[in-house]
Specification:
- By secondary structure, this protein is an alpha/beta fold.
- The protein has 2 domains: 181 residues, Peroxisomal Thiolase, Chain A, domain 1 (3-Layer(aba) Sandwich), CATH 3.40.47.10; 149 residues, Peroxisomal Thiolase, Chain A, domain 1.
- It has 11 helices and 13 strands.
- Strands 1-7-6-4-5 form a 5-stranded mixed sheet, with helices on both faces.
- Helix 4 links the parallel strand 4 and strand 5.
- The mean pLDDT is 95.
- The protein binds acetyl coenzyme *A.
Length: 342
């Protein structure tokens, strides 16, 4: 048998032939489009400012009767369809989100009911924009340990529900949507080669939502003070995003003893075109290696990498055996990267 031209870190452990594959991907975005020109009528901004500073042209906004769980369910159904796996076979649903339908029950439980995955265990986890990569890391642990055979990992957000639509510093950046992946133990296809995740709680104040939790429960004052909206230090978030994404990507590549030139498709968190270009330049990735769709959706936090992965697969640019690098960064701070052999 020919030796693979890169190191599979999983092979060095005693996994007894076990491997974790992404056997299906899917995504869903709401129909309503909010363009930069629409935003010009809402706050003091311009299409020119938003485009040159971020690369975003439009974003999707969920309807009133659409929630994180319903968008997550649509993305999950599409991923299960591609995987040819019935919902009844799902063992575990992990939903990464910072905008759950409600504090409890978990959005993953609502998804379980919505898609009819009757026997699945279900929980939510939160790592903001790194959520989907964190979810892949957690999901693959259950597969590799033989605890479960089929794990559904979803990144889903209705960020429009926590964006302050009177704050031009933030409202132009975010959008709604969901993406999902089905993980199974399948030999030699679409294998998750490595995942790497990290965090720095010291910088939690760069991007956060002050109220609505146990520290500052909802009161008339918290509502009047607009504390139920996200707050962000844009410049510091930018700086930390570039550093953390470069470092996470390098860690993941190093574990596989891979050079960036071997990666067919780099799928970064879609927050800002300038962040993506800066990370690519530091890594030495060429523009044609990058997959970027943020001009259509803005920053969809935990859904961003999942939607982009689904669209990259649907675009037909990936062939069997191609290597994909996922890399993300988010509030927390959190970061993560993953290498997949497609
Ligand atoms: N329209 C017009 N002017 C604006 C807007 C807007 N929408 N937003 C801010 N401005 C103004 C500010 O008021 C400020 O004006 P002032 O200088 O008179 O005070 C000025 O533009 C700010 O300009 P810069 O500081 O040069 O803006 P910058 O180049 O830093 O871009 C941006 C701002 C786009 C927010 C950038 O910092 C950024 O993208 N940061 C990362 C944000 C992000 O992606 N966060 C999430 C990542 S992590 C995660 O996804 C969870």
């Amino acid at each position: 048998m020919m030796k693979p031209p890169f190191k599979n870190p999983r092979a060095s452990h005693n996994f007894q032939g076990r491997s974790c594959s992404i056997v299906g991907v899917g995504s869903y975005v709401p129909a309503k489009i909010l363009t930069n020109h629409d935003l010009e009528k809402m706050v003091d901004t311009s299409d020119e400012w938003i485009t040159t500073r971020t690369g975003i042209k439009e974003r999707r906004i969920a309807a009133e009767n659409e929630w994180t769980s319903t968008m997550a369910a649509r993305a999950a159904e599409r991923a299960l369809k591609m995987a040819k796996v019935p919902a009844a076979d799902v063992d575990l649903i992990i939903t990464a989100t910072i905008t759950p339908d409600m504090p409890f029950p978990a959005t993953a439980c609502l998804v379980q009911e919505e898609i009819g995955a009757r026997r699945a265990a279900a929980f939510d986890m939160e790592a903001a924009c790194s959520g989907f990569i964190y979810g892949l890391e957690i999901g693959q642990q259950f597969i590799m340990s033989r605890t479960y055979n089929t794990v559904l990992v979803i990144g889903a957000e209705k960020l429009s529900s926590i964006v302050d639509w009177s704050d031009r510093n933030t409202c132009v950046l975010f959008g709604d949507g969901a993406g999902a992946a089905v993980l199974q133990n399948r030999e030699n296809s679409h294998g998750l080669l490595t995942t790497f995740i990290g965090a720095d709680g010291e910088k939690g104040d760069l991007l956060y939502m002050p109220a609505g939790g146990s520290r500052c429960p909802a009161t008339r004052q918290s509502v009047d003070g607009r504390l139920h909206y996200l707050r962000m230090d844009g410049k510091q978030s930018f700086k930390n995003a570039v550093q953390a994404m470069e470092s996470a990507a390098r860690q993941a590549l190093q574990r596989c003893e891979l050079d960036i030139s071997r990666i067919k498709c780099v799928i970064p968190h879609q927050a800002n075109r300038r962040i993506i270009d800066a990370v690519a330049e530091r890594l030495g990735a060429a523009p044609e290696q990058l997959f970027v769709n943020l001009e259509k959706y803005g920053n969809t936090s935990a859904a961003s990498v999942a939607i982009a992965l689904d669209e990259a697969v649907a675009s037909g640019r990936l062939n069997r055996g191609d290597l994909i690098l996922l890399v993300g960064f988010g509030a927390g701070l959190t970061w993560g990267a993953a290498v997949i052999e497609w």
